[in-house]
Structures are given as structure tokens and as C-alpha cells.
Amino acid sequence: MSNDALLVLDRVCKSFGPVQVIDEVTVEVHAGKVSVLLGENGAGKSTLIKMIAGVHSADSGRILMDGKEVQIPDTKASEALGIATIHQELNLVPSMTIAENITLGRVPRRFGIINRREMRRIAREALDQLGLNLDVNTPVGDLGLAQQQLVEIAKALSLDARVLILDEPTAALTNAEIAGLFEVVNQLKTKGVGMVFISHHLDEIAAIGDFVNVLRDGKFIATVPADTPENELVRLMVGRDIDAQFPRQTATPGEQHLLSVENLSVGALQNISLSVRPGEVVALAGLMGAGRTELIRAIAGADKYTSGTVKVAGKKLPRNDVAAATRAGLGHVPEDRKTQGLVLDASVAENIGYATMASTAKAGLVDRKGQRERAEKVAARLRIRMGNIDQPIRSLSGGNQQKAVFGRWFSAGAKVLLLDEPTRGVDVGAKVEIYELINEITSSGGCVLMASSELPEVLGMSDRVLVMSQGRIAGELATNEATQDSIMALAVSNVHREDEMGKK
Ligand SMILES: Nc1ncnc2c1ncn2[C@@H]1O[C@H](COP(=O)(O)OP(=O)(O)OP(=O)(O)O)[C@@H](O)[C@H]1O
Ligand SMILES: [Mg+2]
Question: ABC transporter domain: which residues (predicted)?
Fold first, then answer.
């Protein structure tokens, strides 16, 4: 171990009940460097950084700062040591404003009275660092996921930390926002801040990292330079090669439309019509704010639309009725699993079982035993990593929670899957498993409508691409003829036209 490390986790261990999730891991953080933490879903990355953040305490091992052992029993102690953490799952209070959230726990006071003006100034300064043009008086709950993520980042930046931990900060961000964040990270490097960075986007590692610590199953595997080739990183991470990143098997599409949407309008969405045939995967591409999530939610029955119709297998669905949509064979994997997809305190089995609770009930009673058994099977098929099926879903790693949302529709035998950023936060190996589930749905006569910001995923897994721009479908491309450039050209098409009109 070198002596010049800013922070060292020295042979730390952590168990939850009988399950050891961190096993004698040693990791160093150096001033002015970004150390990447890499590992599959459930490898222990978040658990490890929570020991530095004061959320979990280590069962054994030491934490050293500037070479001296420190105790970090709670988050306050962590902050007092100059450690700021951006957690994977957001920690903002939705009902409070941006300014209140950013200054939470250190509200400026003047003569004992909350100094709101100072509070807003601190928040404004933090947002400016990221070039964020948001009103600091906005309640955080009114923001989209990406903006909330950026506020969380701004909050950490405003703490002037010596150590900054970023747990999947880029998962919900656009390329432009990621570039902005990386600029800030580079500035912090020159100021000597030591950083830990976690991401499932392998291409970000060389762009921002200095070295990579690989974890597998809670064990330390290796430290390698950040410019290590991606396939080598994958091998270290999953312990095997992954040959096909996008294993799409095209199915011959059926004749009848399985999903059809006619002239649907709601909010900024204007007269959307589309149809998907059995066996097809149709991707919805577009920029953030193009209306993909609104469209998916309206079709799924999660939101009310003002006009138009949605049909499954020719049968019209009532508006804004999730239960009816579920009965008709529709399944929805939402953008934000934490607030929309899961009941966090319920067990894995219950979360997987929600969509089939009514249809499998016997004499009006929930078939708990059957639910559990079916959930066990699905969890095994999806290789959901957990201690057991009765543990609260909250305690699963982020990527494994996402698999569980998938598992719900899989066990319900959904015919039409509506996916909104289905592999966000999912590791490379588990992504392939999710793609194989998509293949299975389409080869058995189902269909998929998938909103995705990951263009390689759009190109690798769909048959057709509908590109949305400003609430409309700007164009359609056959995937085998599409490129990232042709998709992007359509995605910005309306935007440019309006810009030009604005200039005249
Ligand atoms: N509070 C808890 N109680 C029980 N088990 C837990 C708890 N927190 C984490 N675990 C388990 O510890 C293991 C590691 O989880 P962790 O969240 O650290 O993974 P991760 O590497 O961050 O994964 P991801 O990439 O999906 O975010 C998982 O198997 C998880 O289920
Ligand atoms: Mg994690």
C-alpha cells in the first residue's frame, strides 16, 4: 500500500445477516485522481462506498484518512471529514425546494433565523458550477429524474469536499449533461479532490478515470489502469467473455397489429399514431424531453390522455386504467423504478407477484404460496442476486431491482412490453440477460415498444426505430438501415427548424 493515499479502505468486511457482501476489500483514493469502482450488479460497489459515507459501518477492517485511522459512524461524521457522496438512489426530499435540498443539514442562519437569501445564493452557486439553469425555489419533486440527479450532484459540489464519491451519477443523464459533469470532475482533479466513480458505461471509464478497482462477488479482483481495453475490463468484472452484446434474434412479424395507438394526444404529445406487430421490437428514440416517457405512460394507462385510442389485439383499452391494461396483457417497465416500479418495503416475491395477484387469487384470497414459488422461478431465471425471496426489495442492488420489475411482467406472461430505459443501471452481463428476455417475448408472439437513450441498444435490439422530437414522431427508420447519425438527425429536426424560425 502506498502512503500518499488520501483515503484508504483497508481490508474491510461487511455482512448483512448471514450473507457476506464485502470480503476483505482494500481500495485507495488519491488526491486529484478518479478511481473507478467496477463490478456487476450486486458486486458490492454501493455497499463499499456507503462505509465511507457513514451509512454502513464495516464489520472489520480500517478506514484511514491521511494515513490516520478514522471512525465514520454516521453521515455527519463523513461530511465532517470532507467526504461528499452522490448516492445511486437519490436522496432528495421531493417536497422541499432545490435551495432547501442543497443546504439541508447546514441551513445558514443569521441571528438564529434561517437566512433564506444566503440559502438561495449557495444553491445558485452550486447550480452554476454545472451550468444548470433552474429556479432554486422549485420543489425537487417537480423535476425530472435527470434534473434531480444534477441537483444531487450540485449539492455534493457545494460541500467543498476533499473526497467526492459518485455512485452511478451518469445513469440518467444525457451526453451533454455527462460532458458537463466530466468538466466539473476535471476541475476538481486540478484542485486535488480525490474521487470514486461508479458506472456501468464502460466507455466513460477511460474518459474520466485514472485507475479501476474491480470487485466481483464482494471480493477485490484487481486494480488496472483506466485505459485497459473494455473486453479485458468485462472479463475481470464477470469472470468470463461476453461474445454477443446485442443478441437480437429477429422473429417474423405477424400480420395483425398487437399494439396500436391512434391519434393520441396529451400535454405536449400531438396526434401520435403507431403500431407494433407480434414479434417486433420497436424502439422510441429521441432527445430528453421529446415525449417518449409521456407516450409510454399514456399507453400503459399510468397517465390520462386527452384524445386518441390505444388497442391491444384490436381491443380498445380504457384510458388511465393500469389494471385493465395489465389484464389485456400489457406490461410497463417505467423509467424510475424507485418511485414508479417498486414497493420498496415489500419483499422480492411480492414485487414480482403484483401483476398476477388478482388473476391467481383463489376464492378471493391471494395465493401467497403460489406467488412465492412463481417468483422463485423467475428470480432464478433472471439470476436476480439476493439472499432470499422474502427480503425487502429495497435491500437489493439497483440493477437487481430493475431485473425484478422485468420479472413481474415476465411471470404475468405480458404480451406487449412497454420499456422505458430498460437497462439503466444494469451491468453488461445482466443487459444481455434482459435482451434475451426481449427475444423470448417476441419469439413467443409478443411485442416490445422500447424507449431508450442508448443508441447502441436501439440499433442492436430493435427492428424499427421511431424517432420522436418535441412531442411528435419525426420519422421512422428500419433498424438495419439506421445509424446513430441518421437517428440523431431526426431527433433534432424540429428543434433546428424552430431555432431558425426564431432567428428570422
Ligand atoms: N441493507 C441490506 N440488507 C441486505 N442485503 C443488502 C443490503 N444492502 C445491500 N445488500 C446486498 O449486498 C449486495 C451488494 O449490493 P450493492 O448495492 O453494494 O451492489 P452494487 O455493486 O452497488 O450493484 P449495482 O450495480 O446493481 O448498483 C447485494 O447482494 C445486495 O442484495
Ligand atoms: Mg450500486
Answer: 7-242, 253-495
Minimum CA distance residue for ligand 1 atom 12? 21
| Best CATH choice for the domain 7-238 from the list 3.40.50.620, 3.90.1150.10, 1.10.10.60, 3.40.50.300 | 3.40.50.300
pLDDT tens-digit profile of 52-90? 999 999 999 999 999 999 999 999 999 999 999 988 877
CA 206 to ligand 2 center in whole angstroms: 20
Q: DSSP string covering 450-497, please?
A: EE-S-HHHHHHH-SEEEEEETTEEEEEEEGGG--HHHHHHHHTHHHHH
Under 8 Å between Cβ of 14 and 51: yes
Q: How far is the CA of 484 from the centre of ligand 1 (A)?
A: 34
Please write the tens of the pLDDT for every residue from 379-404.
998 888 888 999 999 999 888 998 89
pLDDT band at 244 (very low <50, low <70, confident <90, very high): confident
Q: Could you identify the atom of ligand 1 that is nearest to the CA of residue 399?
A: 26
112-163 tens-digit pLDDT: 888 899 999 999 999 998 888 899 999 998 887 778 888 988 888 888 889 9
- The CATH number that domain 254-329+416-436+447-504 falls under is 3.40.50.300
- Nearest protein Cα to ligand 1, atom 8: 395
- State the distance from the centre of ligand 2 to the C-alpha of 45, rounded, in angstroms: 5
**Residues 93-116, buried b or exposed e (16+ Cβ, 10 A)?**
eeeebbbbbbbeeeeeeeeeeeeb
Spacing, Cα 254 to ligand 2 middle (Å) = 40
Kindly report the protein residue whose alpha carbon is nearest to atom 7 of ligand 1.
395
Q: Which amino acid is at 257?
A: H
Q: Is the CB of 41 under 6 A from ligand 1?
A: yes
Per-residue cell: 30: 488519491
Report how far apart, in Å, the C-alpha atoms of 100 and of each of 32, 118, 119 are. 30, 11, 7
Ligand 1 pocket check for 396: Cβ under 6 Å: yes
Half-sphere exposure of 400 (CA within 13 A, CB side): 25
Name the helix (H) or strand (E) containing 284.
strand 281-286
How many Å apart are CA 34 and CA 188, to the nearest integer?
10
98 Cβ inside 6 Å of ligand 1? no
The verdict on the CB of residue 43 being under 6 Å from ligand 1 is yes
Domain residue spans in the chain?
Answer: 7-238, 254-329+416-436+447-504, 346-414
- Chain center to CA of 486: 26
